[in-house]
Amino acid sequence: MADLDDPPLPWSTRLWFAFACFFRVLFDAQFAARAWRARAAAALPPAERGAPEPAERDREGGAPRLPGAAEVAKKEPAPAPQAAPAVTSALQLLALLQREGRLVDFLEQDIASFGDADVGVAARMVHEGCRKALRGHAKLAPVRREDEGARVTLEAGYSPAEVKLIGNVSGSAPYRGVLRHRGWRAEELSLPTPVAGHDASVIAPAEVEL
To answer: What angle do CA 96, 83, 197 make, to 5 degrees?
Structure first.
């Protein structure tokens, strides 16, 4: 650390030095860390500024030197960035439901002006096609094996991901209630292997009749 009584630098030297430090701090991380520590030390009162750092006192007294915060940070691996969720499989399944049951067409259609009978006929066709696609590529099983309407008991440690509590929820497990929906679990999923150049975001290609 420079002494406070050092002679001041001339303006031209300060200008050159400022530019040199700017680019050195920008591209040299270690130099930037040292400059930052010097900046922090300069802001301390004179009594504290002149005191040696704890690590220095340890070396002078013969005690083992403890690593500083910067060294610890270097040794600790940076957390790996979370990968974006894969959506290709979901898009493939949606494309299958569209191909077999016209699901997207049905959901995007404005049915407010249609009669109940027309909606019922369309829903029956969509249901038949989507059921065929789903059963052909996925194996589903109920989360709970009891019949809907049966009384069940949820002991402590049950999985909230598998069972959702509804109604007047209070207190803690065990919970006793009525099974209103058995839930569904995907046990298997078998989707076609995409060919080279396949764009999964295209759920259904446009059709042009010639």
So the answer is: 45
> Comparing C-alpha atoms, which of 206, 134, 146, 207 is closest to residue 179?
146
The token pair at 162 is 């598998």
How is residue 194 written in tokens? 């995409």
Contacts by 199-208, CB closer than 8 A, 24 or more apart = 200/87, 200/88, 200/91, 200/92, 200/95, 201/91, 202/95, 203/91, 203/94, 203/95, 203/98, 203/104, 204/95, 204/98, 204/99, 204/104
152 near 174, Cβ under 8 Å?
no
What is the rounded end-to-end Cα distance, in angstroms, of the chain? 83
Helix (H, G, I), strand (E, B) or coil at 48: helix
For the chain, the residue count is 210
How do beta strands 138-141 and 185-189 pair? antiparallel
Calpha distance 35→20 (Å, rounded) = 13
* Segments in the chain below pLDDT 70: 1-28, 32, 39-76, 82-85
Residue-level pLDDT at 79: 72
